[in-house]
Amino acid sequence: MTNDQKLEKMRYLPKWKCGNCGKEYTLENFLRLTIVKMVESDTDQQNEHGFVCDCGYRFFLDTLRIHDTIDIKTDRGYVTILVSTAFLELNHGNRDGKDVWFETMVFAGGFEDEEVEWLKCDLVHRYETKKEAIKDHDKIFNLLKMGKFKIEDYPYDEHKKVLIICDE
Ligand SMILES: [Zn+2]
Questions:
Q1: From the CA of 38, how far away is ligand 1's center (Å)?
Q2: How far is the CA of 115 from the centre of ligand 1 (A)?
Q3: Would you write out the chain's pLDDT as a tens digit for each of its 168 residues?
Q4: CA gyration radius for the chain?
Q5: What residues have their beta carbon closer than 5 A to ion ligand 1?
Q6: Where are the beta strands (DSSP E) in the chain?
Q7: Ligand 1 center to residue 90 CA distance, Å?
């Protein structure tokens, strides 16, 4: 590989990838794909429709999402912790020349309106491959199951606590 090719690989290239066949699209090509309603009531093609890969995979709707929940005991009662791993579809930059396609995050309570106000978790892990993502997802979930976590004061907000998963 020449230096120019290396530099090209290191550069952040926004691109989309099908979660089924693996085909990659530049933004320009992505926007040319067939569109489909996200839910039956969609009427606005600009804002409410999603894109479909040549293989039939519907972006966003068909993406891989792994959700595991576990109840942990805290001094304010039990809290359901959600470990969520997803295929991102849009390349989220690169690390050491590798694309970032998968992400694991941990939510106290659940998503959005279910989230517990007082407990945060800052964990965000990103990976290139599905294999790495699933392995780490399972590891995080198992650490929670084994009680290998701690809850400490949140440095940015005195009313909140932070959940730290202990990777030891
Ligand atoms: Zn595809």
A1: 17
A2: 33
A3: 677 766 665 556 689 999 999 999 998 899 999 988 877 777 776 666 789 999 999 998 999 999 999 999 999 999 999 999 999 999 887 767 788 999 999 999 988 888 899 999 999 999 999 999 999 999 999 999 999 999 999 999 999 999 999 986
A4: 19
A5: 18, 20-21, 23, 53, 55, 57
A6: 15-17, 24-26, 34-37, 49-52, 65-74, 77-87, 94-95, 98-99, 102-108, 119-120, 124-127, 149-153, 161-165
A7: 14
